[in-house]
Amino acid sequence: MEKPSIFDYATALRGQARLRMWLAGICIAIWLCVIFALKSPPLYVFFVAFVHLTYAVALYVMTHRGRNVWSKWLGYLTALLDPLMLTAWVIVMGQTAVLVVPLFIFTSIGYGMRTGNKAIMRTAQGASLAGLAMTPLLASYWQDHMLFWFSSLISILMIPGYVAVLMDKLNQAIVFAEHESRAKSDLLARVSHELRTPLGGISNAAELLQAEANTERPKQLAATILTLSGHLLADINDLLDQSKLTLTKIQLKANPIKLADQVDVVRASVETNARKKGISFSSMIDPRIIDNVVGDSHWLTRLLINLAGNSVKFTEYGSVALNISLLRESPSDYLLRFSIKDSGIGIPKEFQDKIFDPFVQLSTKSLQHAEGTGLGLAISRQVVEVMGGTLRVSSDVGIGSTFWFDLRMPRIPASRNGFEESSNVGDLDRKSMLERRRILIVDDNETNRYLLQEILQKEGHSVILADSGGQALDMLAGSEQFDLLLLDYNLGDIDGSTVLQTYRFGCRNPVPAYFLTADASALTASRLKNTGALGVLTKPVLAQELRDVINRTCNSMDVKQKISSLQTVSGRKDLMPEPAASQRLRPIPTVYIDMGVIDKLKQIGTRRDFIKELLGRASTDIERNTSRILDALEAEDLNGVHDAAHALKGVCMETGAMRLMSLAIGIMRTESAILVEQKQRLAQDLQESSTKTREALREVIAEAGRQDGTFYQNVDYG
Q1: What DSSP string describes 634-670?
Q2: Staple 160 to which of 108, 174, 339, 680, CB 3.0 to 4.6 Å?
């Protein structure tokens, strides 16, 4: 049966070791006190106590220091040793041994529930039965109490056996839930991608139409298209946000916030709709709030826009007001109340708790077709809770509603956080946008390429197009120089992350890159997190977003280059010869081994042969675990594939074998059916990458020998 992914041997062993150490200390202290109270204990009782405590502490140290690639086998070993320790106590404790018997059952069940592995639980159960079965031969107390001994054996046999049956049902339920969750995430990612791709084309075409229109009518039609596509994009974002919040994947970012700017953004978002309905929108910030605050500006803005937009939607006459009040202040923070008050239709008392549930909308006669997904308030409440507050509502039917929440936010003076800008910043930004940049766009969708090219060329940039990952790599490897790379993640031949990583391997000054993707799921974001890109642009990509990216990225690169050139000239670094070690090229390690990790390892070791021994063992481990994966793939032992890939990932992470580590992680995350279907290709890729990685390790060892004057020959690198 498939094992649920929540069970991890290393984590289970660490938890077991922690529990064992504390429980052993407490139990041994209690047992010794009981023995002392009845009689003077013999010397061997203290010996058993010493051995048991030493064993518990040693296992705690082993499982909490570094990574243990043999975690599964250590699980089997401790499943044998724990009952052995308890058996020793049962033999030496005499009549007080009754205190130990329940721990046999506790130990057996504990292994099963922590690891989810019935085989390890059966091992602990068998060792417990064997140990207790021997006690009448070694302890006179049990010879005199055979009925109690027999009942103890039956308890150890029956209770863990019944738990094993329940574990099967529990594992089936967990696996089913994981499959359902994965299916939901895949569906959201697919829906996001399929909707965002055409939506990006619609939005970009509307922007171009609006910019080129000479009369008012086409401009109005283009604005209508942009407005409607914006509503559709907001609904898609609501669905994805709800998925993130349900899975508790939202991560808040702390950045300086100027509240006046946030209010301006909210006003720009809702004031047009308010004006169309003939209602007024006002905002007020408590004048005592003189400093900026720290928080997540993205989510705070989304919250306020969501709440203010709802108020405008359900208000037919009167006004909507956004107020930010100061409740309390200290030298380090503000306690602020954010409130949105309207004179709308109001919410019945019996409905006020339900409106925060997902997909629940207030239906009224005046609003026959409510807009949106019914997720806005549900998402808003959850985000406020993540921020540390509670979203509340006060409402009377026919009078209006007030939504509010209180947040404690750190304060910082405006002069310290970059909001105080010189008057000519706007002029500098406009000037920088006039600079011509060479931009490479890689996208397999012809419409997307065309629209992005049109937008960028209207800004005065030089645009080069590629329709596949292979063509992009050829261009990047050529003599042409680019200022920015816009790379679609879902390419037909090679996925964008592979293209970028392949390009960056061995490249001294890579072009700054951004991914383009219509998949806004958390899974895709995590995949792209460590690929070397500066960020991700989610389709539809609007013209202003492209301006901001180009302005921010290219200008910062220009500044760095100028500073670097000034330092070179002032310090005359161009006349200083580099050390021989720096001049020596290392083509293979640069591709397969992260030399930054190797340099850190060199700082750890004090012995001359440290790197040789460490990397030699790593090479052996890589070969062994690769063979384990290949054998398990051939036998279609999917649990074996996962365990060996997990072990290979740990070895590669410690030694900087990043390409092989990525392959191991990919194997771990690949579904069972795909593993079986693609096993030949995976085996070929794994074998090739493993061989090249071990060659790279040999190269690193040889270079380390050249640097310290030692040449390692006839070394078995695996």
Answers
A1: HHT-HHHHHHHHHHHHHHHHHHT-HHHHHHHHHHHHS
A2: 108
Contacts of 262 (CB under 8 A, 6+ apart): 297, 300, 301, 304
Q: Is the pLDDT of residue 585 over 50?
A: no
Q: What's the whole-number mean pLDDT along residues 566-575? A: 39
Q: CA 523 → CA 194, 254, 293, distances in Å?
A: 16, 22, 31
Query: What's the number of CA atoms in the CB half-sphere (13 Å) around residue 94?
Result: 11
What's the CA angle centered on 217, arms 310 and 196, to 5 degrees? 50
CATH topology assigned to domain 259-363+371-413: Heat Shock Protein 90 (3.30.565)
Nearest to 496 by CA among 475, 514, 521: 514
* Cα radius of gyration (the chain): 33
Q: What are phi and psi of 148, to 5 degrees?
A: -65, -40
Q: How far apart are CA 50 and CA 605, in angstroms?
A: 34
The residue type at 258: K
Specify the CATH class of 436-568 in words. Answer: alpha beta
Residues of the chain with CATH 1.20.120.160: 587-708
Query: How confident is the model at residue 327, as a pLDDT?
Result: 92
The pLDDT tens digits of the residues spanning 26-72 come to 888 888 888 777 777 778 888 888 988 888 888 888 777 655 545 66
Residue with tokens 């992914």: 5
**Angstrom distance (rounded) from CA 53 to CA 14:** 16
Supply 456's token pair: 């960028």
CA distance 308 to 344: 12
Q: What is the mean pLDDT of the segment spanning 354-364? A: 59
Give the per-residue pLDDT at 596: 67
Q: From CA 267, how far away is CA 162, in angstroms rounded?
A: 63
- Tell me the fold of 587-708: Four Helix Bundle (Hemerythrin (Met), subunit A) (1.20.120)
pLDDT (tens digit per residue) in 72-115: 677 788 888 888 888 888 888 877 778 888 888 888 888 777 77
Looking at the whole model, is its pTM more than 0.85?
A: no
CB 372 within 8 A of CB 238: yes
